[in-house]
Amino acid sequence: MALFDELDVDETYRAVRWFFYERLPEIKRKAGAWGDYSSPSVDGMPKAPSAGNGSERRMINHSRYASALYAVRYAIKGCSLTSQKIIQLKYIDELPNWKVKNQIGYTGNSTFSSLVKRAACEFADCIEPACDYYAVSEKIIPDLHVNQEDKKGTNTGQKQDK
User: Fold this and answer.
1) What three-state secondary structure class fits 33?
2) Cα 56 from Cα 100, distance rounded (Å)
3) How far, in Å, CA of 137 to CA of 160, rounded?
4) Chain segment 90-121, per-residue pLDDT in tens
5) Whose CB has fewer CB within 10 Å in the chain, the N or C terminal residue?
6) Residues 45, 46, 48, 51: is their CA dihedral positive or negative?
7) What DSSP element (H or E) covers 156?
8) pLDDT tens for each residue of 20-57
9) 134 touches 70 (CB < 8 A)
10) What letters, b where the CB count within 10 A reaches 16 and e where it falls short, cover 24-55?
11) What angle is formed at CA 91 by the lines to CA 148 and CA 19, rounded to 5 degrees?
């Protein structure tokens, strides 16, 4: 076995694309990223007892998914400037390819395609240490790297969750 497994760029790109289009919107919903973050409020009115502490469980889940969003932002900042722009414009802002090309100053399709794949691989490299830094579970953000020998589907998040 080699010290570094050979990365399957196309499959890693697909895993990163799946993450941004399928998994990230779910993380945003569960983190409450569409509105303001606020602390739970207590109104002083007595409530009927419930089995377990639902509000505590909701706050813990909110915190976990908010940490995942911080990890994504941190990982994007770890990429090269061109890759940061591509990820922001293509996946976060969801602009069409022609607008992304205009913003980064590349016009050729093959050059742009290789830049997008490189950005995806850089993000896959950066998200792992970001998840470690923010203590994000692999259930929330799976490893997005796909190696040549992992083509059978043991390493991609999209095959684990579906």
Assistant:
1) coil
2) 42
3) 14
4) 999 999 999 999 999 887 888 999 999 999 99
5) N
6) positive
7) none
8) 999 999 999 888 876 444 444 445 555 555 555 667 77
9) yes
10) beebbebbeeeeeeeeeeeeeeeeeeeeeeee
11) 45
Rounded to whole angstroms, how far apart are CA atoms 38 and 20?
A: 26
- Tokens representing 157? 């998040």
3-state secondary structure of 106: coil
CA distance 106 to 79: 18
Paired strand residues for 147 = 7
Q: What's 140's DSSP letter? A: T
Work out the burial of residue 2: count CB atoms within 10 Å of its CB; fewer than 13 is exposed, 13-18 middle, 19 or more buried: exposed
Burial-class residue 81 by CB neighbours within 10 Å (0-12, 13-18, 19+).
exposed
CA dihedral 102, 78, 7, 103 (to 10 degrees): 0
* Residue matched to tokens 């998840």: 131
pTM of the model: 0.76
